[in-house]
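re: that chain from earlier
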Amino acid sequence: MSRSVPARPQGGPVLQDTVTDALRAAFFEELAEVGYGKLSLEAVARRASTGKAAIYRRWPSKEAMTLDLLVQVSVTAADTPDTGSLRGDVLAYFTKTEQALRHPLVSRILPDLLAARAYHPGIAATLGERIGEERREKVGTILRRAVERGELPDDTDLDLGLDFLAGPLYWATMVRQAPTDPDLLARMADKVVAALAA
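^ sequence. v structure.
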C-alpha cells in the first residue's frame, strides 16, 4: 500500500507515518470485517491502538478516509510493467490483479463497496470516476504501448479493449469464484490478445 500521508495544514501537527500506517491497516481490517455501513471511526482507532483524534487530524470523516485510502490502494495497484510485448503485459496485469483480488481483505471488501454504491453517492462517484477512470488510464498504457509497437492497429478501440482486460478475470475470480492458476491466466491472456488483435 502507498505510504503517502494526507497533507497537513500550514502550522498543523506533524503526522507520524507509523500512526498513519496503523490507521490504514486497521481501516481495511475493520472494513473487511463489518462492511462500510457498520464501520465506525471509533472501532478503527481502537484497532490501531490510537485515539479517534488521530483520524480527524488526517481525514475529516469516515467517507473521506474511505475514499482517500481506496484511491491510494486501487490506483497504485493498476501500475503496468512493460514486458516488451502485448501478451507479456496482459499476462503480467492478470497475474498482479488476480493476486490482489484473491487477497482475503480485498475479496471481502470489494463486493461490499460495490453494493454500497446504491446508497452512498460519494462512494459511487469515487469508484466510478476517480478509481475507475484513473485505473483505466493506467491500464490503458498496455494497449497504447501495443499500438506503438505495431502489435495492434492504430484504430484499436481502447475503451472496448479495457473492458476485455477487466471482464474475464473479474468474472472468474469475483463472480464465479473459480480457482485460478498460471495456466488459466496464460490461456486467458491468449484469448484476450486474440480478441484485441481481431
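The two ends are 37 Å apart (CA to CA).
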